[in-house]
Amino acid sequence: EVRLVESGGGLVQPGGSLRLSCAASGFSFSNYAMHWVRQAPGKGLEYVSLISGNGGSTHYANSVKGRFTISRDNSMNTLSLQMGSLRAEDMAVYYCVREGVGAAHDYWGQGTLVTVSS
Amino acid sequence: DIVMTQTPLSSPVTLGQPASISCRSSQSLVHRDGNTYLSWLQQRPGQPPRLLIYKTSNRFSGVPDRFSGSGAGTDFTLKISRVEAEDVGVYYCVQATQFPYTFGQGTKLEIK
């Protein structure tokens, strides 16, 4: 069974930093690109970042470029998102998502909430 | 960026009746490899999204056959042949043909 479990969310002040993690299990982690997708309260879904299976290729949404860094540890089956210079508009539930069949978002974690407030 | 526009944004439906959601992209979603990377997600209240359809018309594992996807180029449709109570939620189209991947605004399906 594919499982994705996020952690690391919480309350952070504007301008602060936070590191999210996602523990993956039930599949061959290194064979899959992984995404972070976020959802602001009461809003729709927004692509944040993607990393290839071997970690050699990354991509970011313009809204987070230069502030967020995606990484993975295939030996530990873990995906991470280092977030810096956080703004009020970064407040959202952050989902760890597997890119599977047909480049689709085929498995999602339960999400972790990031609150940016003073 | 490719803009994904869904209609309607809200769809009240009677149980047992069909429902249809449209998704239009600002550019063709045909990838240079010949595939069209358009998928549909369902998000039930309080839950993370769930994949329903990938590559326009392929049902994901475990998805009931009352869900179907169709379309080509820039126009796509998700159909539910007979709406059940468990289908209530928000439906999103998403394209993975070009970076950044982009989502539609979402369509809220509710029961009349």
Describe the structure.
The complex is a heterodimer of chains A (118) and B (112). Chain A has 118 residues and is an all-beta fold. Chain A contains no helices and eleven strands. In chain A, the strands form two sheets. In chain A, strands 2, 4, 5, 6, 9, 10 and 11 form a seven-stranded mixed β-sheet that branches. In chain A, strands 1-3-8-7 form a four-stranded antiparallel β-sheet, with no helix packed on it. In chain A, a hairpin with a 5-residue loop joins strand 4 and strand 5. Chain A is globular, with a radius of gyration of 13 Å. Chain A starts with a strand and ends with a strand. With 112 residues, chain B is an all-beta fold. Chain B has no helices and eleven strands. In chain B, strands 2, 4, 5, 6, 9, 10 and 11 form a seven-stranded mixed β-sheet that branches. Chain B has a four-stranded antiparallel β-sheet with strand order 1-3-8-7, with no helix packed on it. The mean pLDDT of chain B is 97. Classes of the chains: A mainly beta (118), B mainly beta (112). At the A-B interface, strand 5 and strand 10 of A face strand 5, strand 9 and strand 10 of B.
What secondary-structure arrangement, pairings included, does this model have?
The complex is a heterodimer of chains A (118) and B (112).
Chain A: E1 3-7, E2 10-12, E3 18-25, E4 34-39, E5 45-51, E6 58-60, E7 68-73, E8 78-83, E9 92-99, E10 105-108, E11 112-116
Parallel strand pairs in A: 2-11
Antiparallel strand pairs in A: 1-3, 3-8, 4-5, 4-9, 5-6, 7-8, 9-10, 9-11
Chain B: E1 4-7, E2 10-13, E3 19-25, E4 38-43, E5 50-54, E6 58-59, E7 67-72, E8 75-80, E9 89-95, E10 102-103, E11 107-111
Parallel strand pairs in B: 2-11
Antiparallel strand pairs in B: 1-3, 3-8, 4-5, 4-9, 5-6, 7-8, 9-10, 9-11
Give the tags.
heterodimer; A: 118 residues; mainly beta; 7-stranded mixed β-sheet; 4-stranded antiparallel β-sheet; 11 strands; B: 112 residues
